[in-house]
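Lab manual, section 2.4: Encoding a predicted structure.

Procedure: take the sequence of the chain (80 residues), apply the prediction step described in section 2.3, and record the output as structure tokens. A sample record is shown.
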Amino acid sequence: MNPKWVEARDKCARNYLADHFGSEAVTGILTFLYAGKYYDAVKKLLKLGIKISPAGLAALYTQMNYVCIKEANSKHSVYE
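Recorded output:
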């Protein structure tokens, strides 16, 4: 994959999550989401006082992927 595309997608994802949960939640959440560890992400959010279900987080992740992949595609090719 093109590193510039990955960087654009990840930057968008960080901003998207920061808009929804605040900047302190972004660090671990993104790692859990990319690994498919939704329950771990929910646990981390709950520890921060943010109430969300695994299904709600999965829906948010799907929306985030759609928005961020679309944005990354508009800036760079997925493959070099």
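Check your result against the sample. The CA atoms of residues 15 and 22 lie 9 Å apart.
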